[in-house]
Design brief:
The structure is a homodimer of 376-residue chains. Chain A has 376 residues and is an alpha/beta fold. Helix content of chain A is 29%, strand content 23%. The first copy, chain A, has helices at 28-44, 59-67, 78-86, 101-111, 123-136, 160-168, 191-214, 230-236, 252-255, 345-349, and strands at 23-27, 48-49, 73-75, 91-94, 115-120, 140-145, 173-180, 221-224, 241-242, 272-283, 286-289, 304-305, 311-315, 321-325, 337-341, 354-359, 362-368.
């Protein structure tokens, strides 16, 4: 109905302290370092890397990743892939099943424009994909989704060969390989525990690969892994392609995990933050800010205050957060700005329409989050 | 960067079972009944009602409420008010403080177009509002925000008169009245407990009113209350204006509270739902659907399955939910649609760009959620 009425504080050139809040900021320097470090680490591994756009929802960032050696991108949903394809991103893997006639028609429409591959774990879904692709006269690349331990989507490892054969023998489809992603272990804080689980996931994926080879098929690609297991996955040697997402931004939860056996923190820097303003100072030990459930995701806990070590953030409704200063008085005034690290970057990004990219204290550019909300 | 690529399944005329998911549905009949019942209950109370647009974020629904007797609307944030003002909604109260020079300039810009009032709880903020309004040559109506028990924003009741005087004596401002909203008690399940707390909140607001009268000022308006306390607030007699929001949609949490001393459920019907699709059937007792943290808010718990009494929804990441059938087998297939009641309507609505309005099993219209994400 209405176009957006732009807020004054988000134009390029605005000093950081004058940005209207709540706002989602990218620290340009940290972000560029993360992109560069990803290129270095992931390419040196000898594996392909296919970053996940579900983290950032931005074709512009996807293009940056491709310019930095990425083999293509992952999209969590068809809607996200439509946005990427419309922006000219030429190689997209959709990492969840695309189900139903209407969605398959949409999938085929974008598959005509570039290389689009998709995962499947169900015979009926494979048959529908085949019917759609064949009648459109195109070929769709399909990967078998394997449950490597998360208990979400995917066939058991031993049954991968059976579904792979069905794909390979279906008109309009080619069998591309296997996807095995264990989202549940990415954020295990303890390095050794995460290593044990990553090894178990790799073994399940290799068992699935064996089942495919027993079925007489070649495997083009073994794809999976995330930011949390990427260093491990490289060492374990199962995957031919890794799917890191959060490395571009990081978040408070990812920053808290151990990256190595020596318990080193992750080498990626916090590049995403929330800017909030104090709107009320009702008590000596409390400030109220303008960030609540609608501006910071809650699935992984509250966001973390960046420069106020003695204070903690508590959600106080849709539009408010309370900063509690347990050990003494609150130094903030009405109008003070505070910066927060999101607890979960993906779900926080999904609340905003744009990033404000800040360099040396000034908004340098505004990047649309074009695939925001495209969970369809 | 990119315009939205519309999904095929959301056009008017689409049968409900063919809608592409995740989708946010309004049941047209239940919604109209809620709007009508609100008119009846709230107008009969002899109090004005000023519904909260933070629930629905839609100027179209705001207009419907005005056509049904509402005195104006509430907006939680300036960004929301900008969208409403741009759509021609002529009487807006912003229920949180508008802080900082840039925001005050934006406030003044919309105050030129219609009647805009705002709350304040801080002297410095009042002085900035005054400077902005006076230099623009307009008059802003300001209400004192009173902490009636939530411990969020607001002055203590006894200090309301002092701030009211400052407003009344400031160039460019008129003192409008008091706002006292206790969000923390709206969802207390037990009717008697909620009644006790609503009474205490009313007493604090009346104490604040006394402090204003002692300061020699007349009070135009005592505004506050929400859907959960609306029936109580009407009986308690403190407020001259009530601010119900959720009554248009309801949600699983609101539906679970007792509306009367006889423990009657709320008279408003569930009018908002999420449509999901089963994308995987990995086990006998489990189905995976395409709704996760990015499609259903989690702040008030998981959404509730509407027609599957023996199953429960568990979040399984950004884009997935697991339906667990504890007592036996799962009757759903890949491609089956399921309908869910959101646990919290406001924060779930804020994830979507549009409502699909469904009547008699068919999409009748598509309503943009124009103020989605406008937390700024």
């Amino acid at each position: 109905m209405m176009g957006r009425v732009a807020a004054a504080g988000e134009l390029p050139g605005t000093p950081k302290e004058e940005i209207d809040t709540p706002a989602l900021l990218i620290d340009a320097t940290a972000f560029e370092q993360n992109i560069g470090l990803g290129r270095e680490l992931f390419l040196a591994s000898g594996r392909a890397y296919r970053p996940h756009t579900k983290t950032h929802k931005s074709p512009l960032i996807a293009r940056l990743q491709l310019e930095n050696g990425a083999a293509g991108v992952c999209c969590a949903k068809l809607g996200e892939a439509e946005v990427m394809a419309a922006a000219g991103i030429g190689d997209v893997l959709i990492t969840t099943p695309v189900v139903g006639q209407r969605k398959i028609s949409r999938l085929i429409a974008i598959a005509g424009r570039g290389r689009v591959s998709v995962v499947a774990d169900d015979r009926g879904n494979v048959d529908q994909l085949s019917a759609g692709a064949a009648s459109a006269g195109i070929t769709l690349a399909v990967l078998v989704e394997v449950d490597v331990g998360q208990g979400r989507c995917g066939v058991p490892p031993g049954r991968a060969g059976e579904l792979a054969r069905r794909i390979a023998s279906s008109a309009g489809l080619t069998f591309e390989g296997l996807q095995g992603y264990n989202g549940a272990i990415q954020l295990l804080r303890d390095f050794h525990e995460r290593e044990v689980q990553a090894r178990a996931s790799t073994e399940r994926l290799l068992e699935a690969a064996e089942s495919v080879e027993d079925a007489g098929l070649a495997i083009g690609c073994l794809t999976g892994g995330g930011t949390g297991t990427s260093a491990l996955d490289i060492g374990l040697g199962g995957l031919t392609e890794i799917q890191p997402g959060s490395y571009v931004f990081m978040d408070a939860t990812y920053r808290s995990i151990e990256w190595t056996a020596a318990k080193a923190p992750p080498p990626f820097r916090p590049a995403l933050s929330l800017l909030a303003t104090v709107v009320s100072r009702p008590a000596r030990d409390r400030a109220i800010v303008d960030v609540g459930w609608k501006s910071a995701s809650v699935d992984s806990g509250p966001p973390v205050l960046r420069d106020l070590a003695d204070a903690r953030f508590e959600f106080a409704g849709d539009e408010h957060g309370a900063l509690r200063f347990d050990s003494g008085g609150c130094p903030l005034e009405v109008g003070s700005k505070v910066e927060l690290d999101p607890s979960h970057c993906d779900t926080t990004v999904n609340l905003y329409d744009r990033y404000l990219v800040v360099r040396e204290g000034t908004v340098e550019s505004v990047w649309e989050i074009s695939a925001r909300g495209r969970t369809d």
